[in-house]
Design a protein that fits this description.
By secondary structure, this protein is an all-alpha fold. The chain is 93% helix and 0% strand. It is a single-pass membrane protein.
């Protein structure tokens, strides 16, 4: 085992030469393309990370814009609801006012009609009472004036009441 502890100078020389050639070949043909590929990959990853950050920022901006649009839409909706409620109240109040005016007109018309009918009924009643009174007076006078003595008494009575001055 002595040969393991004492290296052979020829073996060391050729091993060193082989190692040098291998390092030279690896450096020329393998390390350059590998390092170039690693550098390209690193740049690609870096560009992807920047693109992801830009995309994240764009998404955040879109979220802000969407939130602003939603707030704006909510405000518009609330304003429309408020205007609609005000319009509804106005329509209801107008309808109530119109109905009240119409009811007042109907009531006034009914009162006028009732008053006219009442006056017509009173007038007709007075006419009928006058006709009945005239008929009764005629009958009374006819019965009273049948005798001449009664006629003379009535004429004298009225002549006394009449003042000729």
């Amino acid at each position: 085992m002595d040969f393991l502890l004492q290296p052979d100078p020829g073996l060391v020389f050729w091993t060193t030469i082989s190692f040098g050639i291998l390092v030279f070949l690896l450096r020329k043909y393998a390390w350059g393309p590998i390092l170039h590929a690693l550098k390209v990959r690193e740049e690609t990853i870096e560009a992807s990370l920047k693109a992801a950050e830009r995309a994240k920022a764009e998404v955040e901006d879109l979220v802000k814009v969407r939130q602003e649009m939603m707030n704006s839409t909510r405000n518009e909706r609330d304003e429309i609801i408020k205007e609609t409620r005000a319009l509804k109240e106005k329509i209801i109040n107008d309808a109530r006012s119109s109905a009240q005016n119409e009811a007042n007109k109907l009531i006034e018309s009914a009162r006028t009609q009732i008053e006219a009918e009442k006056n017509a009924a009173i007038k007709e009643l007075k006419t009928q009472v006058a006709e009945i009174s005239i008929d009764i007076a005629g009958l009374i006078l006819e019965s009273e004036l049948k005798s001449e003595k009664k006629q003379k008494e009535i004429i004298d009575k009225y002549l006394d009441k009449v003042n000729f001055n």
